[in-house]
User: What shape does this take?
Amino acid sequence: MKVKQTIKLLIVCCLILLLLLPVSPGFSALDRGSDTPEQVIGHMQSSLLQVMQEGEKLGYEGRYKFLQPVIDQSHDIDLIIKTILGATYWSQLDQAQQDLIVDTFRQLSIATYASRFTQYEGEQFKIVEQRSLPREQTLVRSQLTKSDGGTVNFDYVLHQTDGGWKIVNILFDGVSDLAIKRGEYRAVMQRDGFAALIQLLKEKIAIAQHNQ
Assistant: This one.
């Protein structure tokens, strides 16, 4: 009888500890790996609106911390930077260099969101459509309505990973973010080398922090 009571007590204690565990502000503790592409974008955009609404109170560091799990969950950072550099440049990097540029690019991606989505003035996101693309990718089209009534179109290209659907490219009013970075980063690699590219990304992070 004492053994059964002890086991029951341990189970109760474990349940209490689970309830007391902190939840990340960006993504809930629930596994979001089964979300559809549209749900991934919808959750990310609702998180952006939330951080905008609390932007001044959070400050840059608070917004960065808030958005970090959101970007990690919704963006395939590894594949994005590999695609930007291309197979030729990527294969020239050793493991330490690959890890460094992935981590630095991840920091820059989060910093960019934290510096741009700073305050809320009535903006609203709306999902327009979701459709299939070649190579088992999916396009989610959405629109941001600004406070002055103007609109910005966001087209998200996603692919399926072990962790669910993740963004591999974003088009702003038809302009590919991937294409812009590809041209810029590869030019630096060709002209000045890997160290110069890392320095460029760090400078962009510093600018994002300064322009908060």
Q: What stands out?
A: The chain has seven helices and five strands.
